[in-house]
Amino acid sequence: MQTGQIISQYTVGGITFSGTVTQEAEGQISHVVTLPAGVAGTRDASGVANLPTGHGIVVSDVVDVHWLDPTDGSHKVRRGLVVDAATATDIDFDEIPAGEGDTLPPDGTDVVVSVQTIVTTAFEGDLVRIIASKATQLALADFRSAAGSELVQKYAANATWSWATGQGFANPLAADSIIEIRLSNGSTTEATFYLGILYDSAV
User: Fold this and answer.
1) Whole-number Å distance between alpha carbons of 65 and 49
2) pLDDT tens, 158-195?
3) Is the pTM of this model over 0.90?
4) pLDDT digit string, tens, across residues 23-48
5) pLDDT in tens, 86-96
6) Do residues 156 and 77 make contact, with C-beta atoms less than 8 angstroms apart?
């Protein structure tokens, strides 16, 4: 048997307190993934302009476009855009096939473009006892089955996300057979993504 824990500590309202969730299960999965730095540019009618020379994005790359909503500062992402044309400072995409996620922002919006990093993995959502993750920069993780996207999780820099069975919250991956995770970096600094999963071999 394997043991997993989620340990939380809070300092709020002048007090400090902590809590621990412990689970046991038969297996575990872990991934530590380097996410290359995204590149800053400006949204335009056909894609993204004003990228730095040497940006490294080429035709047929699959990219995510990240930006901060000017109204509330929330993290927005248009996912899975296939690059149709690339020059020294611009890329174009026509949304064929269509992207996913948030609607692209207006022309002139500052954005960060990141080529997707694909992590091949395999687990049944129903068997998960603990899933925990973290990104060291603004980032996105898209957990996918053969049918498509099942869970999209956005991360602030150094923020964590986790779920554990028995805590009164529905399993976000229930009935999902995950085969890959599509990651992208929403910052212009290289990032690290951490994922740990504790799981049973049968329901």
Assistant:
1) 12
2) 999 999 999 999 999 999 999 999 999 999 999 999 99
3) yes
4) 999 999 999 999 999 999 999 999 99
5) 999 999 999 98
6) no
